[in-house]
Amino acid sequence: MRQWRAAYSASNPGQRLDRWRVGNVEWTRDRHVHWGPDISFHIEIHRIVCKSGERIVWSLLVVSERWFGEDRDKALRVTEFAKLLSGRADTATAWFREHGNE
């Protein structure tokens, strides 16, 4: 997850984009947010797809969930998980290792 976070920050400074490309990798982000007076949360769903031409080399789903109390600067709970949807884990990991250090 550390390499994924580093690649996310490097490829989308300020996290303003919902769809972007890094070479042959397409990255999309869906964000769902609820801000309430006492409890708030946001969920980000990332789908990252590496293609060679029209062929999918690997694809990854990453979900990040954050819950906040009245102090929205301090998360009460953070949950993240990644699921390789297709391809080889070592190929995807190598890509994130390379692009997280730029």
What do these coordinates show?
With 102 residues, this protein is α+β, with helices and mostly antiparallel strands. The chain contains 2 helices and 5 strands; from the N terminus they run αβββββα. The chain has helices at 2-11, 89-99; strands at 19-22, 25-35, 40-52, 55-68, 75-86. It has a 5-stranded antiparallel sheet. Strand 1 and strand 2 form a beta hairpin. The mean pLDDT is 92.
Short key terms for the protein model shown above:
102 residues; 5 strands; alpha+beta
Could you provide a short overview of the structure?
Helices cover 21% and strands 53% of the residues. The chain is built from 2 helices and 5 strands, in the order αβββββα.
Topology (SSEs and partners):
Blueprint (H helix, E strand, L loop, with lengths): L1 H10 L7 E4 L2 E11 L4 E13 L2 E14 L6 E12 L2 H11 L3
Antiparallel strand pairs: 1-2, 2-3, 3-4, 4-5
Poorly predicted regions:
none
What's the rounded overall pLDDT mean? 92
Distance between the termini: 16 Å
Return the string of H and E elements: HEEEEEH
Helical percent range?
A: 10-25%
Oligomer: single chain
Computed structural class: alpha+beta
Number of strands: 5
* Spatial shape: elongated
Radius of gyration, CA atoms, in whole angstroms: 15 Å
**Strand order of the main beta sheet, please?**
1-2-3-4-5
- Count, helices: 2
Largest sheet composition: 5 strands, antiparallel
Percent range for β-strand residues: over 45%
